[in-house]
Design brief:
globular; TIM Barrel; two-stranded antiparallel sheet
């Protein structure tokens, strides 16, 4: 596990997904994003994560096409994720949203499609649509994002297909132990968004001390901590040197003592919305 930048985890449907990917949250359409995607692929990334609400799928798609042309890689060498937004969480509207995302990305299929937020009373119909897309071979894998344990339990009561992924806010200040245990028990892969807490952790004294011990940056220590917890991680950057740095995680390993010390930073503190109390 976690031997190099292209190391993969096997999802519960047998599909393999890279442990490390590029996140593009809040990166606007345009050349900066196109170049970031190209740089990521050039430096070994094989997973790109976007969403309809990010309003940047067109540039992500352009970056993917140009990266494939430059590298000689094939579409199937990349793992591309997008997400259905809250306003589209009906049966027909979810299918329509999927087709719209494909069109913007310029792709024939997605490797992973996620329900972005657990909107009460809506996510089950959306899941039924996603199950149909999966059965029809239109998408390789389906999952959820920002689901708490009770959301997963509710969804799985009626679902034919267990989600392969739950992508959630996860970092040393929000270690989500109960959720990690639940997803592991049900063979649902946990994935971290905002692994660096939107930069808030990059001056933390304990993390600085640990980073100096290993000769690594604080970001590298946090991302390595993710991987050693068995959590897929998708750090965001548009800077090529940061994209390279964020992938340089495979030549060191944190000791159990240091893993425990980082775990001890948990305050159950979020930088994003609470999945039980959001309004958008």
């Amino acid at each position: 596990m976690n031997k190099h930048v292209q190391s993969k985890t096997r999802l519960n449907n047998g599909i393999e997904m890279p442990w490390l990917g590029l996140g593009v949250f809040k990166v606007e359409e345009g050349s900066e994003l196109v170049e970031a995607v190209k740089a990521a692929v050039k430096h070994g990334y094989r997973s790109i994560d976007t969403a309809a609400v990010y309003a940047n799928e067109t540039s992500v798609g352009q970056g993917i096409r140009e990266a494939l042309a430059d590298s000689g890689l094939k579409r199937e060498d990349l793992f591309v994720t997008s997400k259905v937004w809250n306003a589209d969480l009906g049966y027909d509207s979810t299918i329509a949203a999927y087709e719209k995302s494909l069109k913007k990305l310029g792709l024939d299929y997605l490797d992973l499609y996620l329900i972005h937020w657990p909107v009460a009373g809506k996510y089950k119909e959306a899941w039924r649509a996603m199950e149909q897309l999966y059965k029809d071979g239109r998408v390789k894998s389906i999952g959820v994002s920002n689901f708490q344990v009770h959301h997963l339990e509710d969804l799985m009561k009626d679902a034919e297909i267990v989600p392969v992924i739950n992508q959630v806010e996860f970092h040393p200040m929000l270690t989500q132990k109960e959720l990690r245990d639940f997803t592991k028990q049900h063979n649902i892969q946990l994935e971290a968004w905002s692994p660096l807490m939107q930069g808030e952790l990059l001056n933390h004294p304990l993390l600085k001390e640990i980073a100096e011990k290993y000769g690594k940056s604080i970001a590298q220590v946090i991302l390595r901590w993710d991987l050693q917890h068995g959590v897929v991680t998708i750090p965001k950057s548009t800077k090529e040197h940061r994209i390279v740095e964020n992938a340089s995680l495979f030549d060191f390993e944190l000791s159990q003592e240091d893993m425990d010390r980082i775990d001890g930073l948990n305050e159950n503190r979020r930088v994003g919305p609470d999945p039980d109390n959001f309004d958008f």
